[in-house]
Amino acid sequence: MKVTTRRNLLKAGAAGLGGLAALSGRSAAQEGEEAAMTPDTLINAEKVAGVSFTAAEREQMVSTIEDQLSAIQQLRAFEKPNDLAPAQTFDPRLPGVTYQTHLGRNALIPSRVEARPLPSDDADIAFAPVSQLADWIRRGLVTSRQLTDIYLARIDEIDPKLHAWITVMPERARAEADAMDAEIRAGRYRGPLHGIPYGLKDLFDAAGAKTTWGAKPYSDGDVKSADSTVVRKLASAGAVLLGKTTCGALAYGDIWFDEVTRNPFDPREGSSGSSAGSASSVAAGLCGFAIGTETLGSLVSPSHRCGGSALRPTFGRVSRAGGMALCWSLDKVGPMARSVEDLAYVLQAISGYDAADPSSLEAGFSYAPMEDVSGLKLGFDEAWRENATEAELEAFDIALSLGAEIVPFKTPDLPQSPLPQQLLAEAAAAFEALTLNDLDDEMVWQEDAAWPNSFRAARFLTAADIINVDRLRRRWMQAMHQAFEGVDLVIGPNFASGLLTPTNFTGHPCLVMRAGFQETRPRTIFGAPSDPDAPPAQTPVAISLWAPLFQEAKLLAFGAVLERELGVAATRPDL
Fold first, then answer.
1. What is the pLDDT of residues 3-18, one digit of tens each?
2. 74, 83, 247, 492: least CB-packed within 10 angstroms?
């Protein structure tokens, strides 16, 4: 371990103290003895921490900081597995506020599905929404085993172009499919996910496979013997696990330890991330639906790039037990699919309290289709039109014309840039061993924006500043609650709205859905052109809808209506 002695603690700059013990001018190696903490040691550290003290104050602090360093040394020596959550847990609910949710069993009333014949083309079957697949299975027109074999064959054929799967699990998938078919023959039908094959972001444990977290330092881990909570809940609903989809290393980006996951609509560019493989697989018809996660954009961004739909639920609604923790106070689990209402089917199965997740909340989910939207109040900021694409503008116009009452909406005027510092601090703590043991050098992505650099820099955040970021977060929670008063839903651009960051920190639900297409050239993960001279391609554009806490049912029901009006969800990539 790189930091094991008091000398090394001093040389490391007391990272746990936010840099209040940066390198002194003297070297223990030069002097042949352990470097001593002196007032001069603190002078440069003050620049890192953004503070200034007098000579007398520095003199007084020396012994106190030495004691702090001793405590930090003990803390670093204490084993802290990834699933050891902090004692303080985030709760998106404000005190004194009554939220519109129920504590009963989850309930789902699906839309009526037209009784269509089974297509003869396997691709037509593979790209069908979950609602249609479920109808074919229920009516006995296709078996779960047939569906599973179709998707496994497509993965074999197409994934070499996309690099969207880390581990395919054909034996487990076929065994589960056969079991679901046997239940159908015996007269047992579990519901709309019965026999539907899906992909699981490789942040979650599934018995029979490694969990790599997309990162080289963890790619040779042990095969897991137990399922995560989300896998167990989906199995209870009858879904069939095809395997593990790719994620950007440690839930960031589309670069994993072996490849870059690609956008099916333009494989020259990455799929964005970090739910990279789930988004790419859904868009390419490699599974019925998929599970992803979001800490700060990891459901929204790849869905925007690849053109699927995804739901970021209210924080705490879906258990994270058995999954990797990046940021305990921000991580959220959500479904990804080709159709908005499919997301409701999956949320109904995975939503619910779980004692194994310290942040889990008791909140039921009940969904029914919405044909008349006239009772809704839809928030919109006209300023969002200024930088919108043609596809976004058309989607906004259609949404605003559906009959809901249009209400002006303004994003609260509060600072946003400090908020991600809390994410960086928690993530650096979660993966402290990578930084302190020099294992971060094994990560494939090493640019300035990548985790290794961010984790190192986060060692110099001060504890006082991080606590004050959390206080700002509370103010954002209060402000967003006020902004949503008298508003059922808000519609706007995914990123230009300025809502992606604060709503992640306040825990509000978000639906991202395809709005149309635009002509683009290959882009970097952040959207900048990577090859301005390359021929353009038609790639998807998505928009977002946000709702008050626990109001996913309205979000999805309105989104389903809008999706039908837009008529662009079924367009397929040319693979």
1. 333 333 333 333 333 3
2. 74
* Nearest in space to 213 (alpha carbons), one of 242, 252, 240, 243: 252
Q: What is the mean pLDDT of the chain?
A: 93
In the numeric block, the tokens 């921000």 are attached to 330
Task: Check if the beta carbon of residue 451 is closer than 8 Å to that of residue 250.
Answer: yes
User: What is the spatial distance between Cα 396 and Cα 402, in angstroms, rounded to a whole number?
Assistant: 10
Cβ(308)–Cβ(276) below 8 Å: no
For residue 152, report the phi and psi dihedrals to the nearest 5 degrees. -65, -40
Looking at residue 390, its amino acid is: E
Active site residue 201: yes
CB neighbour list of residue 274: distance below 8 Å, 6 or more residues apart: 214, 247, 248, 251, 252, 253, 254, 293, 298, 302
Task: For the domain made up of 107-415+466-566, give the CATH fold.
Answer: Amidase signature (AS) enzymes (3.90.1300)
The catalytic position among 275, 298, 319, 454 is 298
**Residue carrying structure tokens 């809808």:** 545
Q: Kindly report the CA angle at 537 between 536 and 542, in degrees rounded to 5? A: 120
User: How many other C-beta atoms are found inside a 10 Å radius of the C-beta of residue 81?
Assistant: 7
Burial 256-276 (b: 16+ CB within 10 A, else e): bbebbbbbbbbbebbbbbbbb
- Predicted confidence (pLDDT) at residue 29 exceeds the cutoff of 60: no
Q: Phi then psi for 539, rounded to 5 degrees?
A: -125, 155
The per-residue pLDDT for 37 is 86
Q: Comparing C-alpha atoms, which of 81, 553, 563 is closest to residue 317?
A: 553
Percent of the chain at pLDDT above 90?
A: 92
Encoded tokens for 226: 């137990």
Instruction: Supply the pTM of this predicted model.
Output: 0.93
Q: Who's near 519: CB < 8 A, 6+ residues apart?
A: 536, 537, 538, 539
Calpha distance 166→25 (Å, rounded): 47
Active-site position among 11, 201, 233, 554: 201
Distance CA 304, CA 515 (A): 9
Active site residue 274: yes
Residue-wise pLDDT tens digits, 210-260 = 999 999 999 999 999 999 999 999 999 999 999 999 999 999 999 999 999
Is the pLDDT score of 556 beyond 70? yes
CB atoms within 10 A of CB 437: 14
236 given a catalytic annotation: no
Pairing of strands 405-408, 332-337: unpaired
Q: With contact defined as beta carbons under 8 Å apart, do 543 and 392 qualify?
A: yes
Dist. CA 161–CA 33, nearest whole Å: 57
CA distance 449 to 552: 32
- Give the separation between CA 386 and CA 381, rounded to whole angstroms: 10
What the block records as the tokens of 384 is 């969002």
Residues in the chain, overall count:
575
CA 428: distance to chain centroid?
17
Residue 250 Cα to chain centre, angstroms: 11
To which residue do tokens 């012994």 refer? 63
Round to whole Å and give the CA distance between 366 and 334. Answer: 16
Among 24, 228, 272, 274, the active-site one is 274
Spell out the domain ranges in the chain. 107-415+466-566
